[in-house]
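(Deposited chain)
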Amino acid sequence: MNRYILRTMALATILITLNSCAQNTKKQDSMSTEYQDKIKNNYKNVKIYDYNPIYQIRFDKYNCPMEMYINEILVVSLLDNDRSAGEQIIQIPEYILKSGVQTIRVKIYPLLDKQKNFEKFVSRDLWLKLRVTYQDYEKDKTADAKEVFKAELPKIEEDSPYLEFKREFKASVPYELEGWSRGEDLSKEDPKKLEQEVKSRMKEIADLYQNKDIEGLAREQYKRMQEVDQSYYFHTKKNSEDLLVELQESLNESKKTELLEGKMKLMASGKLATILVDKGVFFNEGIIRTDIGDSYAFYPQYFYRPSPGAKLEIIR
């Protein structure tokens, strides 16, 4: 499976994995029956339709460090200088709450030098081909995916510190998710107080990962899991069991969970807040990082405030 697909889909069923990891923790017996049942049986709540479309970004790039946003939420951050090995696919259904007009925004940066710092200008030798498509994976072949958006960068003629473009496309999905749509506009809050609150929530989540507190993680992430599972139509137990072998092994092998330094970012037109690493080789990764020996696992958290004065909750 394409590594970008796996990474995106991993977020969808993270709680199932954590539940299966419970045998390696002391928290297994403390987890309430209520949440065991909710997690194990959530697939029963997923609705299936005559046609179950999943939307994707498909791209081919060269000399093109970039970020891609769907509905103003960061879904792709690729800051390497390499050429993609053919057309790459990123699944994006969890960022589409309902049918209608959606936005896609792309930011392109200069190449990275040997010290992993950005050069002064975007490479004039870059190129990017980009499409948005959809398909029902149980009915359509990959080659038969329907295209709803297509773009190709023109030749770069002038020096520029970065490039950015924003476009729209229409999506038609059979489900409707509430997501962050009714959340408070966080851009209107005191940014210093909000960032401190987000950091505090990140620390709480990091402690849950460190302690492998299955009950705590279930309570924090259940709403996200419900919506993402619906967006992928995960309606069988097998869907939840097969996708996260890599993450499950990471959690089982984890030695330490830590909170990195980063800066707050508002997304979804101010409805979501997160903190991402803002420099170095882990730029744009989530600040919750688990050491698994020869590599790291990152756990991004996107928060919204469901009502005035309410506690920030994980929604993606």
